[in-house]
Amino acid sequence: MAFREIHSCTELMELISEIGFLPLLDSGIQGYAAEDIVDEDCRYITSPDGGWEWLLWKWKGQIVTEMPCMYGKFFNKKAGFISKEWWPDFCNYRRSKYARPDEDSIEGAIIETLKMNGSMITRELRAACGFNGKGMRSKFDGYLTRLEMATYIVTEDFVYPHDKHNREYGWGWSLLNTPESLYGKDVFSCPRTPDESYQRIYNHLHSILPEATDKQIAKLIGRL
Predict the structure, then answer these.
(1) What end-to-end distance do the CA atoms of the chain give, in Å?
(2) pLDDT 10s digits, 8-63
(3) CA-CA distance, 90 to 83, in Å (whole number)?
(4) pTM of the predicted model, to two decimals?
(5) Are strands 78-83 and 45-46 parallel, antiparallel or unpaired?
(6) How far, in Å, CA of 89 to CA of 222, rounded?
(7) Residue 103, phi then psi, degrees to nearest 5
């Protein structure tokens, strides 16, 4: 897939607005990921002293807060961006496949905890939901991934620890929230049926990814 090379966060935001859907890393479709289309200097770079620089990784927070757009594990359990223009159709289709969890289920409890407390970083949410102890982190992450795939949870921003010089470091933590809390219920207003939303997204992705197979596009949308 041929997209113009991206050299800045602003250019990446413009592209997301233009094409609507963009996985962050490998999407399973050659060339269709932010990692593939940014300039080499924006990709992961290591230094001789063991340090690293990854501009694309640092841009994520700026993109979701300034555009704004939705970010989460939407594409076959992998993270990516969806513009607000396309979110109603995407959510309309995905939620037709993933019914809202009952409040007495674990997924329901996670959603209610976020609704009561507002945005929380992953480890705070995990502790609030009682997922402590050995092996609980990966188990809880599995529930979060399902909720993100179902569009009930998104990443609001990223939070980084600071060193003694007040400089950010590390990979950062996802600040999670419900899309309803962030943007209100109007962001879900969609005049189409779930199947109509699916077809609209499919046609759009096929137009920007003409070399992708039907199966690859269906997998991105969540048909398979």
Answers:
(1) 22
(2) 999 999 999 999 999 999 999 999 999 999 998 888 777 777 776 789 999 999 99
(3) 10
(4) 0.92
(5) unpaired
(6) 13
(7) -65, -25
